[in-house]
Design a protein that fits this description.
Distance between the termini: 9 Å
Structural class: alpha+beta
CATH class: Mainly Beta
Low-confidence stretches: none
Number of domains: 1
Length: 124
C-alpha cells in the first residue's frame, strides 16, 4: 500500500498540498506516481500563472501514459520545482519531498481538500 502522510491535505485527483500561511506546496501522491509508473517528463504552469482549483494546470508523462495535473488550490504560482526539468523521476522517488511540483499563493480558502484519513478511502 502506498504511503499517505498525516499533516497534508489531499484531492480526489491524487494531489497533495502542505501549507505555510497562504503559501501552499503541491505535488502528486505516492499512489498517483505508482499508478503512472516511471515519470519521464513534467509540464508545469509558469510562475505568475493563476490556477483554479480542480482545473488542469499541467501534465505528467510516464512510460505508460500522459496524465493531467489538476490544481489542488486556487491562487498564483509563486515557484515551480525547476529540478523536475532535468530529473522528473524525483516525483517517483520522493513525491512528498524533492518531487513537489509548484508553490501557490492561495486566494481565498481552499475547499474540497481531505485529510489523510479521508484520502485513504479513495486509494483503497
Amino acid at each position: 500500500m502506498s504511503s499517505i502522510p498525516e499533516g497534508l491535505q489531499y484531492t480526489k485527483e491524487h494531489e497533495w498540498v502542505s501549507s505555510t500561511g497562504n503559501l501552499y506546496t503541491m505535488g502528486i501522491t505516492d499512489f498517483a506516481q505508482g499508478a503512472l509508473g516511471d515519470i519521464v517528463y513534467v509540464q508545469l504552469p509558469k510562475v505568475g500563472e493563476t490556477l483554479t482549483a480542480g482545473k488542469v494546470c499541467g501534465e505528467i508523462e510516464s512510460t505508460k501514459s500522459v496524465s493531467e495535473i489538476f490544481a489542488a488550490v486556487s491562487g498564483v504560482v509563486s515557484e515551480i520545482n525547476g529540478a523536475l526539468s532535468q530529473t522528473p523521476e524525483l516525483v517517483n522517488s520522493d513525491p512528498y519531498g524533492a518531487g513537489w511540483l509548484v508553490k501557490v499563493e492561495v486566494t481565498g480558502t481552499p475547499v474540497d481538500l481531505m485529510d489523510a484519513a479521508g484520502y485513504v478511502h479513495i486509494t483503497a
